[in-house]
Write a sequence for this structure.
């Protein structure tokens, strides 16, 4: 072996050299054989690309933040001890693996507001990390943050700040992508990072898949954010499975609608009332819609007035007035029994 060939150290180097001298073009070619089996596609699964498109269409911009966060920042959003410390962190403010997307999104919002960007809508999808009995668990999530005006500044639009129902509407648009929106419910629940009166857990078949709400005022103040600020976070595993659409023939017979105005305690959730109505109104009920909410003058203290429209439609005949009256009676009786509701004139 020539002394000047320091690049030849092992047997493979010598084989390569012989092949080069012999000529790569003279080596026999043998095409590999393999059996390729296409992976079956899950038609009911909602892709992350689809979720991104929904948020982009609703005025969001996508953010990409570090998976390493400042322990102090994470403590605002997660007080558990599930965080994973890095053995050799880049710096002290990047020494913990994130358990939520909110710390990075809050810093991105802070960065934008410090540069006079007051209307901010950001979302991010990525992995979060936490300790579990099996070791380290990676959870894919999608989250977002909004603050500032509801619309872009314009002489046509009145300046209005975003509220809880704006971010809730964005979340509902994501949940509807799989065609299984009816499986999700919003349940009032406190979260230490969210405003106690404006936070909700998102449930699917009894399992918690996310949270939505207003950032807690104390955290808002500590981070120097211009509020109000609203956030959401969803587990991708909990929302990506949808249902395959199926066609049902449209009824040729007319709909029948009746409106009810009821008085209930302020603590009663609308979702509970709607669920009760669906259970008691008969199988031909097609829609329940809230069209008025009032809790001002003339209403008992700690009570609210709800006006709801109920729609029935039979698939093979026209429903009679007697049948509708029976349905309405069942609904009223059930509401009185379950929620002590009172029918308003």
């Amino acid at each position: 072996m020539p002394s000047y060939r320091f690049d030849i150290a092992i047997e493979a180097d010598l084989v390569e050299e012989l092949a080069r001298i012999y000529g790569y073009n003279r080596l026999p070619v043998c095409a590999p054989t393999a059996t390729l089996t296409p992976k079956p596609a899950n038609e009911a699964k909602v892709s992350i690309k689809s979720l991104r498109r929904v948020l982009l269409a609703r005025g969001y911009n996508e953010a990409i933040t570090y998976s390493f966060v400042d322990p102090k920042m994470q403590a605002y959003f997660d007080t558990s001890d599930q965080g994973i410390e890095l053995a050799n962190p880049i710096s002290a403010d990047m020494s913990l693996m994130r358990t939520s997307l909110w710390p990075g999104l809050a810093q991105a919002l802070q960065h934008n507001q410090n540069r006079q960007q007051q209307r901010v809508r950001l979302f991010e999808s990525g992995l979060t990390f936490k300790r579990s009995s099996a070791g380290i668990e990676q959870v894919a999530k999608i989250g977002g943050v909004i603050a500032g005006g509801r619309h872009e500044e314009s002489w046509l639009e009145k300046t209005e700040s975003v509220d809880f129902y704006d971010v809730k509407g964005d979340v509902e648009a994501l949940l509807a992508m799989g065609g299984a929106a009816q499986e999700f419910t919003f349940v009032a629940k406190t979260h230490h990072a969210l405003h106690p009166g404006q936070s909700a857990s998102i449930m699917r078949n009894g399992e918690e898949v996310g949270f939505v709400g207003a950032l807690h005022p104390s955290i808002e103040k500590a981070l120097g954010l211009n509020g109000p600020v609203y956030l959401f976070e969803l587990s991708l595993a909990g929302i990506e499975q949808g249902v395959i659409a199926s066609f049902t023939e449209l009824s040729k017979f007319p709909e029948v609608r009746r409106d009810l105005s009821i008085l209930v305690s302020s603590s009663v959730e609308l979702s509970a009332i709607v669920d009760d109505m669906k259970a008691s109104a008969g199988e031909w009920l097609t829609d329940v819609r809230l069209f008025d909410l009032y809790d001002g003058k003339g209403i008992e203290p700690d009570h609210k007035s709800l006006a709801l429209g109920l729609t029935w439609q039979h698939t093979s005949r026209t429903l009679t007035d007697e049948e509708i009256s029976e349905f309405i009676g069942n609904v009223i009786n059930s509401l009185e029994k379950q929620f002590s509701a009172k029918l308003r004139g």
Summary: Residues 15 and 21 are 10 Å apart (CA to CA).
